[in-house]
Specification:
The protein has 183 residues and is of the alpha+beta class. The chain has helices spanning 14-20, 145-160, 172-181, and strands at 11-13, 28-38, 41-51, 58-65, 74-86, 92-97, 101-102, 105-106, 110-111, 113-117, 120-122, 165-166, 169-170. Helix 2 (145-160) runs antiparallel to helix 3 (172-181).
Length: 183
């Protein structure tokens, strides 16, 4: 039986934060949110406060979660430490510090993406996730099967697209389809 993949769960990344906020020490952003949707329907929402203090940079997550097949929603409010690493040519690269434990051992791993694990967010290891390509056999990833599987993947992505272009430019998923189709 294969593991769940990173594509199957909600994720929260420092790349998103960097794209939408000026991540510099001393800046703070309050009551921001992310909404996850599927076919235009909201399937998840998370509110966050981003506190980039010099001595304790962190992001405070605030959302409601429910355990699989439960009817009651439980409010979840906790803090995830952030770590800034200086880049070789200047600037900072931000990472989350995983706050979960696996097998009774605190993780604390520095990661760029946090994945949904039950009611909390943690690193890929704590979430026991794998990449989708790891579930494919080596023979299936090589020629000639790669051509067929790429076409299947492109067809699957294309069938889920709501639009192929935005403001005159192809969307990211449509570009992925074109790449897989070999156009």
């Amino acid at each position: 039986m294969s593991k769940d993949t990173t594509n199957d769960v909600r994720r929260f990344s420092t790349f998103f934060l960097n794209k939408h906020h000026d991540l510099q020490i001393g800046n703070s952003y309050f009551r921001r949110n992310i909404i996850w949707s599927l076919n235009g329907n909201e399937i998840g929402r998370i509110n966050y406060d981003l506190l980039l203090e010099a001595e304790n940079p962190r992001i405070i997550l605030d959302y409601k979660a429910r355990i699989y097949r439960a009817e009651d929603w439980t409010p979840v409010h906790y803090s995830v430490p952030l770590e800034a690493v200086k880049c070789h040519f200047g600037g900072l690269r931000w990472y989350f510090k995983c706050t979960l434990s696996k097998d009774g051992v605190f993780c604390g791993k520095r990661v760029a993406i946090l994945y949904s694990v039950a009611s909390y967010f943690g690193c890929r290891g704590c979430a026991n996730l794998t990449y989708s390509s790891c579930n494919e056999s080596r023979g299936f990833r090589s020629y000639p099967w790669k051509l067929i599987s790429d076409s299947w993947k492109a067809d699957e992505i294309y069938s889920s697209l709501r639009q192929t272009h935005y403001k005159g430019k192809p969307t990211r998923n449509y570009r992925k389809c074109l790449e897989l189709w070999g156009n």
